[in-house]
Amino acid sequence: MAVAFSVVFLAFIASALEPLSSQPQLQCSACLAIAELVGQKMNDTAKLKTTFQASHRLDARNKVKRIDYESSELRAYEILDGFCNELEKDYIFRLGENNLRLFSSNKSLTRANYYGKNDKKELRSVSKRLRDICNEITEEDDTKIISLIKKERYLDEFQQKLCFSEGFKCCGTKKVEASKEKERERREKWLELKKVKDEKIKARAEREKRKKEREEEEKKRREESCSTTVDYLLFHFIPFNLRVEHTW
Ligand SMILES: *[C@@H]1O[C@H](CO)[C@@H](O)[C@H](O)[C@H]1NC(C)=O
Ligand SMILES: *[C@@H]1O[C@H](CO)[C@@H](O)[C@H](O)[C@H]1NC(C)=O
């Protein structure tokens, strides 16, 4: 029974993050981005701290049970309302500080490059994939994220639980680490090819520059030799008495 359950559960996790499944490190980055933006909204809405009566039942201490807004389902739904649109707009595919590509809202990071044709194909409409992952986490499988929004208060713990341990477990796995390694190799290869290409372009520009210089020199030499001829003619055909520079 437990085995059957965990098999179903694992299948569920795997299908929950189908988009970008060939690049697990980006699935992880998508999850962290989602956690970051949810965290930001949690902090924004935490300021509206009010309590509301949850039910008419009395709790263990004979008090009417009241739920504060911060731990309520209502707040979670408000945070998730229109969430993926905002995420897609703010989180762009960029090159992170450690040379790994990620979804980030940090505008001082440059946009990421594709590392060749295959990579480009694999990451086709990458921001739409981010949105797909977002929809799956926040709509199709929302109970995990909602219970975490209700419980957690700090971003690092929220990210830890959503993406590493309790929720989607799409970060920190061997698969993710291996794909980071692959990503680094892909980048190295791309940089290597780019270097060769850039060098070729540079060499061609250099050749063209030299050719132009040679042509300029040639032109100047022709003009000079022409004016030497003129000097020569002038010297020989000017009457003797006007050749001031020669005295006999
Ligand atoms: C809310 O902001 C505080 C202070 O910047 C931060 O420590 C905390 O992690 C934030 N919480 C979430 C859920 O993002
Ligand atoms: C954004 O990226 C820059 C450059 O890597 C970094 O110095 C800065 O701390 C980042 N900002 C945030 C808010 O993470």
Automatic annotation (TrEMBL):
Residues 205-225 have a biased composition (Basic and acidic residues). Residues 1-16 form the signal peptide. Keywords: Signal. InterPro entries: DUF3456 (IPR021852). It comes from the Eukaryota. Pfam families: DUF3456 (PF11938). Residues 205-226 are annotated as: Disordered. Residues 27-166 form the DUF3456 domain. This is DUF3456 domain-containing protein.
